[in-house]
Write a structure and sequence with these properties.
alpha+beta, 15-stranded mixed β-sheet, disordered C terminus
């Protein structure tokens, strides 16, 4: 077990500890889960024990190890900031689980004062890194509060699209709120899909029949979509990504954790969405559809059915996450600002953050995404693929 402990007696008996392997994480598991329940923060799914432990089990290696900063008061865990140390010549501290984690954040006990939480930043000094790079920090989050007056990297500012489900008392109220054109398009899409077999929809949880097969189908459909549109997903390129998603826990009775929306036409899975439920907040993590049926928009039909299911089960938010897209705008009624922060520890870190992270990377990414599909496909398979792997 690798554990660094630093008591600080002048801060209400708070002790700073760093967890650096799975054994240390397992030792804190019960206290970690208890803190998740007390914090009840809907934007901290990717800082939860289950996500972090499953990700480290699947993807950690010599160039990627946990660097999880925690605060304790006696035996009670009062703050968790899950980070990882990555890189070769240039060492980076990044949110644990990146690029699969969608929000950078931390867990903190609501009763913990800001001065005590600040110990998390103080404790980073001994991590042996050149740069801490914190991508997609939600506005108003606990981590945004910790960073305080630190200026974000303006070129990397973004937003997450969300649909407020609390505005709809029932799925019927949601349907009634659609415009006449929306209802007509909804019926047209469903009728077109029904020509390929009777439509059925279900939401499955881990361990239930069809869950693992459905996850595999979603990954397969998503990868075909990427190929056809000339896009690249760094997260999907990880070996074992599908197995990692299928291994994440979920609980139907508690309406928490991983779940899978499945839309079928007959026995054929035509669309699916892997999502996470966390304190009544639903993360629409990975949606995919059968490319051969794209003209019938099976993905939109599945999303519509998923939203209705969530409303019927008391979810408050349908979160489409970051990376703006036209379809997300049409499904959302509010946004959440996301910022990237760079905290250099030395000259090498300042150079990397100022030149590559803040300037070259966003410009190259815009250039790549602005290419027609055909040219993007050539870029993926051409000699320049290594560069685009870094920026996608």
């Amino acid at each position: 077990m690798t554990l660094l402990t630093r008591p600080v007696p002048d801060k209400a008996g708070v002790e700073h500890r760093v967890l650096r392997d799975r054994a240390a994480m397992a030792g804190a598991a019960a206290a970690w889960r208890d803190l998740e329940a007390r914090a009840a923060d809907p934007l901290t799914y990717f800082q939860g024990y289950d996500w972090c432990e499953c990700w480290i089990a699947a993807f950690a290696g010599p160039k990627c190890r946990p660097e999880i900063h925690t605060l304790w008061q006696g035996k009670q865990l009062v703050a968790v900031w899950p980070l990882m140390l990555t890189g070769g010549a240039l060492k980076r501290l990044e949110p644990l689980g990146w690029p699969h984690s969608q929000y950078a954040n931390l867990l903190a006990d609501p009763a913990l004062g800001a001065n005590a939480v600040a110990m998390l930043l103080e404790g980073m000094a001994g991590a042996g890194h050149d740069l801490a790079l914190l991508d997609s920090v939600p506005d108003g989050s606990a981590l945004a509060g910790l960073l305080g007056e630190t200026p974000p990297l303006t070129p990397l500012a973004g937003s997450a699209a969300m649909l407020d489900l609390a505005a709809f008392a029932t799925p019927e109220a949601y349907a009634a709120g659609l415009s006449k054109t929306q209802r007509r398009n909804r019926n047209r899409r469903r009728n077109a899909l029904a020509r390929h077999g009777a439509l059925s929809f279900d939401v499955l949880f881990p361990g239930e029949a069809g869950f693992a097969e459905g996850v595999e189908a979603c990954i397969r459909h998503k990868r075909q979509w990427l190929r056809e549109t000339g896009r690249r997903s760094t997260g999907l390129a990880f070996d074992g990504f599908g197995r990692f998603l299928a291994a994440l826990p979920g609980d139907r009775a508690a309406l928490s954790g991983t779940c899978l929306s499945v839309l079928k036409a007959g026995d054929r899975i035509v669309a699916g969405e892997i999502g996470f439920l966390h304190h009544s907040h639903y993360y629409a993590y990975l949606g995919a559809f059968d490319w051969a049926l794209r003209e019938a928009s099976p993905g939109k039909v599945q999303m519509d059915m998923t939203v209705s299911w969530l409303i019927g089960h008391g979810a408050k938010t349908y979160d489409l996450l970051g990376n703006p897209a036209d379809y997300k705008e049409s499904w959302s009624n509010r946004t959440l600002g996301l910022n990237t922060y760079a905290l250099p520890a030395n000259l090498a870190g300042r150079t990397y953050a100022g030149l590559w992270t803040a300037r070259l990377r966003p410009g190259l990414k815009r250039l790549y995404l602005g290419l027609p599909n055909g040219l993007r496909r050539l870029a993926r398979f051409g000699q320049s693929v290594g560069l685009f792997l870094m920026i996608a």
